[in-house]
Amino acid sequence: MERERDRCGKVTGEKDLSRSMAEGDTLISVDYEIFGKVQGVFFRKYTQAEGKKLGLVGWVQNTDQGTVQGQVQGPISKVRHMQEWLETRGSPKSHIDRANFNNEKVILKLDYSDFQIIK
To answer: What are the residue numbers of the active site?
Structure first.
C-alpha cells in the first residue's frame, strides 16, 4: 500500500513537471516600445538589470521619438514577468503611459548572450 502511494505521487509529479516544462521553458522573443517619461530617468539601466535578474537576454535603446524600445528573449514565464515590469514599473523616476509588445514568436535558441544597452 505504501509503495502504491509513492508511485502515484511520482507519476503526478512527473505530469506536473512536463506541463510546467512545456509552458515555462518554451523560448519566445518579443519586441517592445515604451511610451511616457522614459528617457533621462535611467529606464534603460533598470531594464537591463531586471532582464539580467530574470535570466533574460536582449537589448534596450532610446529612440529619437522619446520612447524606449528593445527586444527580450527567454522562457515564456520570465518574458511575461518582464512585460509586466515594463508596463507597470520601469525605473523609479519613470512614468509609463503605454507599452506596446509585438512580433512575439517562439524561438528554438536565444539570439543574444546577454542583455545589452544600445547607445
So the answer is: 44, 62
